[in-house]
């Protein structure tokens, strides 16, 4: 069936057209908002308030300059990277072994565990915030990047466990068995066979953990005071700021994530490679 | 396929170690931490730091907050018995719920040498014998109009002495002349329209804000408001700060908080006029907003926090604060001639509004604490059901009246002005 349709030129042309349209739509879906964000961040405040909005940037740096000189942006950015980085390391460090265990071993309560792991997302954070903050203040974790990273790890963990579990499931256990027969230990087989195959997927779930932490506001706003993350530092104030500054601030929030995604794109793109293995 | 070579492994390891050290090794250089819900827009925060607080002489870290995290953090520090917040700035209603956690600031008012508004100072005691907060600044809601709208004013109407009936008529004339409604109200998610009902319409029509929630006068009021809404720009459901649609020319006449009109008046001073809110059958209802400063008992340096509170009350500081935030002084000051246009425009309107012969000032809700949000929602819901969904006025008021009553019962809050202030729990008639 598949072979026949590929040989029919009309179907193939229509198919190509459909795929092309889908690709263009998907690209526009992502790129148009980013484009307008960039244009408005780089336009003069007057042009941004007016209507119609500018379609080409005027390279007026007034709004951008505001943020460059706004006290605390640089430190907050550093804190954000730090917390998101720690969250990523913790979420993978705890999530990947748990995912491996779910994929490879049978143990009592396995399906219950799968479900319970998701439950951490069921409690609204504002409800937990008060007792959590009290606890943090008493234990000295309050206002530290590590303390906040713990909370963010809890939020990211369910997904890093479930993503890595399905990832390890997709790697045939026979490959590992073959390595064992050739003299590898369990750990050796994992390191030399499973890990290289799993790296792209692990990277994807790492990115997810990073973004979860980067975007989280409430816990960050309550649990940090002098060591705020960029999101907690800016988002609340941007909400009630004039439009031109909203655009410039949004650009400041989005840019670091874009750079990060660009840096790890190699691993993300090859995620599809694994499916065609 | 990927191989992780030794170099990469080393890099990852070093990075994690570095991050952990950086994360745990917290150095605490200690500027006084100013935790506040005022001056939240980034521009105002920046000017508050650079122009107002810089003059104190000692380092102060000003952090503007959403009310949610603001309250949670204060509650948590009080409960934990130790804290990092040095000094707090918030609305009367936001501070009222933490009364027992604040130190007495009676000596601050004396030390500042300023003559503080007596009524506001009394409000700051929060019903105790101690000064729980010192008043810091005040604002209110007024009307603003594009000068283009003035030609359509109804015959015989005086801009400084409008009635709601005249406002509706004005709106109708503008809509017919321009083809689209030109009145705007901040009914969006970030808008403050609930204050329009609580402090403006209800007192103007019923002389009350809670007790007569479902009175016949209230039914008449909602009927009139429906007529006003018909002359209101449909975009109002998205507006948060009316200064933006006013500057864009989308809206010509708007009701808004003085601080949220500041930009329009400062950037286009020749295009706008400011004037008092309209009056209804029961008077000219308006709502003064009081922001206060408290020092929590857990403050790392209460003495310095008190010194900062006294500094904030000085007439010079109050004038700079007005320039920066659009919030007016609470102490006796003589304003210099070079104030920004927004101060000139709003100042005159505020003065005319509060000194009007039929003025009916009402307070922001008092003593509701965490239930403030619910209380505001009860008014927004009433608006949505009656005006947006067109439900029967009497039936909606009967049901929503029960909601308001249950909130007051839960909070055990006595009535506040303009309702008669007694010790009993306030109730809806």
Describe this structure in words.
The complex is a heterodimer of chains A (277) and B (429). By secondary structure, chain A is mostly helical. Chain A folds into 2 domains: 2-62, no CATH class; 72-240, MetI-like fold (Orthogonal Bundle), CATH 1.10.3720. Chain A contains 15 helices and no strands. The radius of gyration of chain A is 23 Å and the shape is flat. Chain A starts with a helix and ends with a helix. The model of chain A has no long low-confidence stretch (mean pLDDT 84). Chain B is α/β, with parallel strands linked by helices and 429 residues long. Chain B has 2 domains: 32-139 and 289-348, 3-Layer(aba) Sandwich (D-Maltodextrin-Binding Protein, domain 2), CATH 3.40.190; 141-288 and 358-411, Periplasmic binding protein-like II (D-Maltodextrin-Binding Protein, domain 2). Chain B contains 16 helices and 11 strands. Chain B has helices at 6-24, 42-52, 67-80, 92-96, 106-112, 118-123, 164-178, 193-206, 216-230, 243-248, 262-267, 302-313, 315-325, 341-354, 372-388, 393-411; strands at residues 32-36, 60-64, 87-91, 134-139, 141-146, 183-184, 253-257, 272-275, 284-286, 289-294, 359-361. Chain B is globular and about 60 Å long. Classes of the chains: A mainly alpha (277), B alpha/beta (429). At the A-B interface, helix 5, helix 7, helix 8, helix 10 and helix 11 of A face helix 1, helix 2, strand 2, helix 3 and helix 10 of B. Chain B: InterPro entries: Bact_solute-bd_prot1, SBP. Chain B: It comes from Microvirga alba. Chain B: Residues 1-29 form the signal peptide. Chain B: Its main location: periplasm. Chain B: Keywords: Cell membrane, Lipoprotein, Membrane, Palmitate, Periplasm, Signal. Chain A: The chain crosses the membrane at residues 16-38, 81-103, 115-137, 149-171, 192-211, 247-268.
